[in-house]
Amino acid sequence: MKRLPRIEQYGLIGDMQTSAHVCDDGSIDWLCLPRFDSPAAFAGLLGTQEHGTWQIAPAQPADRSGFQAVAERRYCGDSLVLESVWRTPAGSVRVQDFMPPRDGAPQVIRIVEGLTGVVSMVSAVRPRPGYGSVSPWIHEAGERMVAEAGADSLWLDTCVPQAEKDGTVVSAFAVAAGQSVAFVLSWCPSHAAAPDVPDPEAALAETLAFWRDWTQECSYDGPYREAVVRSLLALKAMTYGPSGGIVAAPTTSLPEEIGGNRNWDYRFTWLRDASTTLAALLGTGYRQEAQAWRRWLLRAVAGDPENLQIMYGITGERDLQERELPWLPGYEESTPVRVGNGAADQLQLDVYGEVIETLYLAHHRGVAHCADTAVLHQRLVEHLAQRWREPDEGIWEIRGERRHFVHSKVMAWVAIDRTIRLAEAGALDLNLAPLIELRATIHHEVCAKGFDPTRNTFTQSYGSQELDAATLLIPRVGFLPPDDPRVVGTVDAVRHELSTVDGLVRRYPTTGERAGVDGLKGDEGTFILCSFWLVDALALTGRLDEAHALFERLLALRNDLGLLAEEYDPVRQRQVGNFPQAFSHMGLIQSARLLHQLTTQSCHRRRGTVAVPTPRSTSRDTHRTCTSLTP
Prior knowledge:
Elements: E1 10-14, E2 19-23, E3 27-32, E4 40-42, E5 53-58, E6 72-75, E7 82-88, E8 91-98, E9 107-126, H1 129-132, E10 137-141, E11 144-149, E12 152-158, E13 163-165, E14 168-176, E15 180-189, H2 200-215, H3 225-237, E16 239-240, E17 245-246, E18 269-270, H4 271-282, H5 288-301, E19 311-312, E20 323-324, E21 338-339, H6 350-364, H7 371-387, H8 406-424, H9 432-449, E22 451-452, E23 457-458, H10 485-498, E24 526-527, H11 528-540, H12 544-555, E25 567-569, E26 574-576, H13 582-607, H14 619-626
Antiparallel strand pairs: 1-2, 2-3, 3-4, 3-5, 5-9, 6-7, 7-8, 8-9, 9-14, 9-15, 10-11, 11-12, 12-15, 13-14, 16-17, 18-19, 20-21, 22-23, 24-25, 25-26
Helix pairs in contact: 3-13, 4-5, 4-6, 4-13, 6-8, 7-8, 8-9, 11-12, 11-13, 12-13
């Protein structure tokens, strides 16, 4: 019986243009070439070995029918070089998997090194371009093997013999202690000249140096540095270097419920996800990424902010038509498998707030002023002022009817509030009086229509009974002070109605009498980002010990390589959803920073060495207090 790896059994390697998922049995089961959003050449993650894999492992067993996992694996230092060690009766070997950061052809390099004894190994490369739908023409080209299909060609180079058998390139070899064998898989257009063969050892040294230099820029020095740095590396790996766009995740259709149909393609750039990811990067010392993203934003939105999309392709493409791939059986038979994303056409008013918040943070982090961005900013605010009263699909991209989501209105307030502050700082030339009035109007309406005084909680939408974890952000963005009774009541209500006994948080009800808002069938796991929001809300409302305890529980959900998917299934006790997820790692970074700052301030306050400002009652003054914790 074929073994089905859990999502958390995968590691990630990448070159900031695409990435590969490496299982702990030595198999690469997901690789899109040459970009994140290209069709997968290895799609075994969403099907079987017949849909494309590349396994390097000890010769016995040679396939997953008698699965043998690595004895240990880790990333080499602060890098994306994955190191796996097998121990067998005959000896031990180490495999280093990586993708060199590149300007040219994408390459996956796998170096097998003997540690002790003599170990027999097998490399089995089964390329299946077109998301596993195409059997390529595999043939020799000199001393190289090449697989060609349509516009794509994959070149496999190694120093050991290779042979094609039933659509698979097989190499059987042995390594003794001190010996090494390297494999290089390169992609290029099928009509182009063959790609150069790199020096694997030199490429390894350059890759390690690249990641070491990048992580040294991290300014966070708190108690969770290891987890923060690993999350930063995951976010950097999901950045498309040539454009500055950031994918929400490098996979498609990993299910939010095993066997369910909530399976979406996340290999695009959401304005919301990218903005909040940039906020995490800015807060840890990375400004270059913010500058690149700002240029991406200008190109993507272009001269058309009135038709702002909530997501674009990684180089700004607008047509992200959603379709299904019926030949793929899906991860653990979770269908359909989708590519493209129909939510690109939705109205989500909160994205204005997230984008403008990031521009605000970039200004305060010293990112140079950009006149073109200022013009775009002004036009976005003008458009939001005309549309903020409309119902929308909200942060969770519901596929039911539009509603007046409280979070959307709060983020509209954030967009206006941050615009006012930038204008007050001289970064924008605007007439403040109507903006100040609009800010007050939005605030009053949300408090009047989005709050249930009987239950003492903000609700998911105006007049609804459902709750929404996104309302946990109300104190984080400064809409109300953390000690406001409405904030405390909302935090308590979310914990009571949307949390598990371990504190893991669902986005909103998907079962029971209050389910159905999203227009979808089935259930989903707890949402990891929402659980980090609860950490923040507990910390801000003075429950630091509880916040730390929940944060530690969330850290324990990471896999052995420090990676998090979108959701966690508390019943099956496993990660679900696309993997790794930028939202989850962004939440980890922001919570770690907030806990470190508040804990430090609490210690200083007890020692009498610093005065910590007390949150005030007005939304304007509250923002000045709260945002001092977040930029």
